[in-house]
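Troubleshooting: if your tokenizer reports a length mismatch, compare your output against this known-good record of 317 residues.
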Amino acid sequence: MADGSTPEDDVSDGREAGVGFRPGDVPIIDLDAVEAAVQQALERGDGSGLTLLGYGEISLVVGWPTGAPVVAAKRLPPFPSADAAADYGRRFVAYLDRLAERGVVPVASAFRVVVGTGSTRVAYVTQAVLDPDDLGPAILRRSAPDPDHPLLRGIVDAVGAVCDPRTGLDAQVSNWALVDGQLRYLDVTTPMLFDPSGRAELDLGLFLAAYPWALRGLIGRFVAPDVIGAYRDPRRVGVDLAGNLLKERLAEWIPSVIEAVNRTVEAEITEDEVRRYYRSDARLWELMLRLRRADRWWQRRIRRRTYPFLLPGHIER
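Known-good structure output:
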């Protein structure tokens, strides 16, 4: 580990250096203050008091300090214990190490843990806020479509270097940046590592906690394994890379991405396939979000409990 510490060392007051990829390069912020602000927002059911930089399927990205953020703090769902948080931290570091070994350089990232309620622990992956002009979508918007564009070529090469039966990569363009001209990977919150049998090494229960209790078994059996497992297959990653350009309003880049991907896979992908995939994927995640909104209503209105997640509003897909 970069600073010689372990995830167990990091369960304190939210001010530790953390573990990860060059964690010492990530500005230190008071994560106890961040978590207190998030808890206030959860109690209100309203994130208006936070600077929200984005939403993952289970994570919330908070810019800190509010109003003029220098750090993007990606909050994971609470862990049931310090041991569970430490285990996730070890897998997080292992994933960053594997990416770096295969030539994919993450932005400086730290895994830090604060004490939650009772025995729970809340983990944050922290990264310095980047210049929006350095992010992948902005780079493509100011460029003419070209299968040999350096950003696109670097992403496709990274997929080929990383993806195998035991390692996955979410290569959509919003997960990349060019920092000082060097390609950097952003989305390291989910360690996509798999055991020899193909099962995800991370505890999917952490992710299933974001969904209604009655449906977790079904989602865990029929949805989650395929969703996360797809990121090991270079061809499926390529289809996802091309499809998510529709979400970014970069449809004019789809033919160039397809051309670049088809140079590296045996079975070529087509634009029709990409668009069909994206429609199906968008419907799936819209359904999942509707389920979470229904659960929020049930928890807050019927059970009179604080719903433990902030959800996005309408998403234009």
